[in-house]
Amino acid sequence: MQSLNLSIIKQAKGIKMKSIEDSLREYIGSCQIGEMITCPLCKYESKNNKGSAKVFPDKTFKCFACGEWRRLG
Hints:
Layout lengths: L5 H24 L6 E2 L15 E4 L3 E4 L5 E3 L2
Antiparallel strand pairs: 1-2, 2-3, 3-4
């Protein structure tokens, strides 16, 4: 079994996280503070078509379905 150099793994992780941050920033930027939105990661919606994630004033969002909590800065 081959193993990857740790620096290659860190670089790949950084690139992946940057792309996720950019897509989330674009999605969250169009939402109002305090609004319940559909989570961009798990896409969960309740029976009454209400989103599972909430946008907070400090550019964070929390999904109450999958537990994802991200700060976009």
